[in-house]
TrEMBL record:
One of its GO terms (cellular component) is cytosol. This is Sucrose phosphatase-like domain-containing protein. GO terms for molecular function: magnesium ion binding; phosphatase activity. Transmembrane segments: none annotated.
Length: 228
C-alpha cells in the first residue's frame, strides 16, 4: 500500500548537522521548504536548548524532541516543555555512582538544566544521563554494564563532532520511538504516515515506529539494514 507522508522526524548529529555542528545552507533550505508542506520535528539526544537553537534556525513550529525522547518542547510557547519524563531516583543514583567510580565524563539533563559536575549531580531529578566521549570498545562495556538494569532504556550513539561514542540512559519505555508516538498524538498524525531520517543506534526505535525510515550515509551496517 502506498504511504503518504504527513510529517517528518529528523535526527541532528550526522544527519542534518555535520562534525562542525552546523547546518549547511543546502540542508537548511531543503528542511525549511519541507516544513512548509508537512510538520517537521527534530528528534535528538541533545538538550532542549540545542533543539531550540537548530529549530529556530530552520523556522520549525511543530513540537520538537530532545534528550532521546525524554523531553518534548513547543516552539510556539517560547520553546517551553510540553512533556517530560524522569529517571527513577534510585536508578539515577546508581548510574551516577558508576560514573563517579570510573571518573567518566557525562552530562545529566532535565527539562530546565544540565549538570556535568558529579559533585552537583546527586539528589537531583534528571530525564537523561549520558556517558560521553568514549572509544567504541569502552562504550560497549559501559552499555553492557548499565543494561543490567531493567528500569531504564540504555543505548549507545556516535558523536560525529569528536568521532567518539556516548551511552545514553533514559526512563524505561522512553526513546526516540516513543517520542514519535507522542508527537503523532500531539499533531493528530498516525506514525505510519511519519517518515524519519537518522544514522545511529539510538535512531533504531524511531526507524521501527515510523512508516518510512531513511538511513543517512555513513551509518553502521546494522542501522542501514533496518532502514526502508
Amino acid at each position: 500500500m502506498k504511504k503518504f507522508i504527513r510529517a517528518v522526524a529528523l535526527d541532528l548529529d550526522g544527519t542534518i548537522i555535520g562534525p562542525d555542528e552546523q547546518i549547511s545552507s543546502g540542508t537548511a533550505k531543503a528542511v525549511s521548504r519541507l516544513a512548509k508542506l508537512v510538520p517537521v520535528f527534530i528528534n535528538t539526544g541533545r538538550e532542549r536548548w540545542e533543539v531550540k537553537r537548530y529549530g529556530t534556525e530552520l523556522g520549525l513550529t511543530s513540537p520538537q524532541v530532545s534528550d532521546n525522547g525524554a523531553v518534548i518542547i513547543d516552539p510556539l510557547s517560547n520553546w517551553e516543555p510540553l512533556w517530560h519524563a524522569l529517571l527513577d531516583p534510585e536508578i539515577t543514583t546508581e548510574v551516577l555512582e558508576k560514573i563517579q567510580r570510573q571518573s567518566l565524563p557525562f552530562i545529566a539533563t532535565s527539562k530546565s538544566e544540565s549538570v556535568q559536575d558529579i559533585s552537583l549531580a546527586f539528589g537531583r531529578e534528571f530525564s537523561r544521563i549520558s556517558v560521553l566521549d568514549m572509544k567504541e570498545d569502552q562504550a560497549e562495556k559501559i552499555l553492557m554494564d548499565l543494561s543490567v538494569s531493567t528500569e531504564m532504556q540504555v543505548v549507545k550513539a556516535w558523536l560525529p563532532y569528536n568521532e567518539l561514542w556516548a551511552v545514553d540512559c533514559t526512563p524505561l519505555g522512553v526513546d526516540k520511538g516513543s517520542a514519535v508516538r507522542k508527537i503523532g498524538e500531539l499533531i493528530s498524525i498516525s506514525t505510519q504516515y511519519i517518515a524519519c531520517v537518522g544514522d545511529s543506534y539510538n535512531d533504531l526505535p524511531m526507524f521501527r515506529e515510523c512508516g518510512m525510515s531513511i538511513s543517512k550515509g555513513g551509518a553502521p551496517n546494522s542501522v542501514e539494514r533496518e532502514a526502508d
